[in-house]
Amino acid sequence: GAGVSQSPRYKVAKRGQDVALRCDPISGHVSLFWYQQALGQGPEFLTYFQNEAQLDKSGLPSDRFFAERPEGSVSTLKIQRTQQEDSAVYLCASSLAGGLGGETQYFGPGTRLLVL
Amino acid sequence: GENVEQHPSTLSVQEGDSAVIKCTYSDSASNYFPWYKQELGKGPQLIIDIRSNVGEKKDQRIAVTLNKTAKHFSLHITETQPEDSAVYFCAASKTGTASKLTFGTGTRLQVTL
After folding, report:
1. Residue A90: closest C-alpha in chain B
2. How many other C-beta atoms lie within 10 A of the C-beta of residue A74?
3. What's the DSSP call for residue A37?
4. CA distance A85 to chain B (A)
């Protein structure tokens, strides 16, 4: 079946612009995660949803970052007033169960954001 | 919070040789340890995982070992092939949280002919 999809795959933004990144998780997956991957680094956790509830947003770097999953499926990560340090690959992952631990997370291809 | 260290950062082996990547973690409550392979321009793909109630797990040419006392775990790839060339990440998480993964910094594996 279809895996996790993300759009756009590439986004170039001018500093100060707002951007919205979309994630379509695997159908039926309860848990959805957003990670940020800087060049040459491992992914770093941003936020977690269980269905439509955002249960953990401890990794969001500032209040310019906002994520939602209103109907418990598609999720959007929004970055307001982008800055150069926001340039990174944004990865979305989903897992079948309720995030209690030990479930496989399936990653999408990521959105590469470049802020000029 | 959890901290995962990974080494080496780069590894070059000849085709057919074995490759070993090592990780250490800091949180003794961590109990799930997946390994991901990431190819250029793609998202991480799970290749094998291990839970804390198991000391070793093998899947064809890939094996993972876990030492809970020392808080380290390793990935072993035998009979390496050129298509094994990629960046490999270890990660750790624990039950009862959102299962968020804490990743290592990655190992770039190059398998030469």
Report:
1. B43
2. 14
3. E
4. 19
**Shortest distance, CA A71 to any CA of chain B (angstroms):** 19
**Which residue among A35, A44, A100 sits closest to B96, beta carbon to beta carbon?**
A100
Q: Distance from CA of residue A10 to its chain's centroid?
A: 14
For residues B49-82, b (16+ Cβ closer than 10 Å) or e, as one string?
bbebeeeeeeeeebbbbbeeeebbbbbbbeebee
Chain A contact probe: residue of B52, B97, B99 with most A CBs at under 10 A: B99
Q: What is the pLDDT of residues A22-32, one digit of tens each?
A: 999 999 999 99
What is the per-residue pLDDT across B77-99, written as a single tens digit (0 to 9) for each? Answer: 999 999 999 999 999 998 765 68
Q: What residue type is assigned to position B50 of the chain? A: I
Please, which pLDDT band fits residue B111 given cuts at 50, 70 and 90?
A: very high
